[in-house]
Amino acid sequence: VGPRAEKERVNCPPNNIILMLAGAGLLWMGWSGFNGGAPFAANTLSALAILNTHICTATSLLTWLLLDSFFFGKASILGAIQGMITGLVCITPGA
Fold first, then answer.
1. Is 10 left (phi over 0), alpha (psi -120 to 50) or beta?
2. What are the strands, taking DSSP E only, across 8-66?
3. Could you tell me the pTM of the whole model?
4. In sequence order, what DSSP letters do the residues of 50-80 get, joined into one string?
5. Greatest Cα pair distance in the chain
6. Tell me, what's the pLDDT at 18?
C-alpha cells in the first residue's frame, strides 16, 4: 500500500471503442430490465421505472458531454459512457 508508481499514472485509453460502445449499450438495455422488473409485474409502475431510467440516463449522458465540451474543448465517447453509467447508477434507487 502506498502511492502509485509514475508509470501507472499515464492516460490509458481503451483498446477497442466499438466493443466499449457495444458493452455500454448492453448495459443500458439490461439495466432497463433490472429497474423495470423490480415491481415483479408488468404494470404502470414498471413502465414508469423504465421511462425514468431512460430519461435520467440520457440526461446524465448529455450533461457529461456538455461538461466535457466546456472543460476539455471537445466531447468524447469515454465521457458519454461515463455519463451513461453515472445516470444508471443514480436512478436505480429512485426507480
1. beta
2. none
3. 0.79
4. HHHHHHHHHHHHHHHHHHHHHHHSS--HHHH
5. 54
6. 92
Backbone angles phi, psi at 23, to 5 degrees: -65, -40
Question: What sign results for the dihedral spanned by CA atoms 73, 77, 82, 83?
Answer: positive
- Pairwise CA distance, residues 25 & 31, whole Å: 10
Question: What's the confidence (pLDDT) of residue 15?
Answer: 82
Please tell me the predicted confidence (pLDDT) of residue 4. 75
Ranges of the chain with pLDDT below 70: 1
Contact by Cβ (8 Å): 36, 51: no
Task: Report the distance separating Cα 65 and Cα 27, nearest Å.
Answer: 19
Nearest one of 26, 13, 31 to 77, comparing CA atoms: 13
**pLDDT at residue 11 in the model:** 76
Long-range contacts of 58-66 (CB under 8 A, 24+ apart): 58/87, 59/87, 60/84, 60/86, 60/87, 60/90, 61/87
